[in-house]
Amino acid sequence: MGNLTMILGIIALLILAASLIYTIKVGRLVGARKSNMDTQINEKVQEHPYMRNPVFLTYVIFGILALAFIFYLAYTVVW
């Protein structure tokens, strides 16, 4: 079980790093667009405003991984 915990920890750190980088990129893009007040919102963002948000993506990915870990522990731990 130690190896799986280490692997899940590494995956969690990779997800955190990727979401941080993505959030910084989006923040820079928003900062650049604020200089042009009347810019058009990207069509992909208009179609899926929540799935293009890195915070929501992080919550969804964390929830899936947390449930996977809970089910793994429920099926492997001897009670």
Head-to-tail CA distance between termini: 15 Å
> What sequence of helices (H) and strands (E) makes up the elements?
HHH
Overall form: elongated
How would you classify the helix and strand content by structural class? mainly alpha
Per DSSP, what share of the residues sits in E-state strands of 2 or more residues? under 5%
Describe the biggest sheet?
A: none
State the share of residues found in helices, binned by percent. over 70%
| Computed CA radius of gyration, to the nearest angstrom | 18 Å
Number of domains: 1
Beta strand count: 0
Mean pLDDT: 78
Which parts are unreliable, with pLDDT below 50 for 5 consecutive residues or more? none
User: How many H/I helices?
Assistant: 3
Textual characterization of the structure:
The chain has helices spanning 2-34, 43-47, 54-76. The longest helix has 33 residues, at 2-34. By secondary structure, it is mainly α. Helices cover 77% and strands 0% of the residues. It has one domain (2-76). It contains three helices and no strands. The protein is elongated, with a radius of gyration of 18 Å. The model has no long low-confidence stretch (mean pLDDT 78).
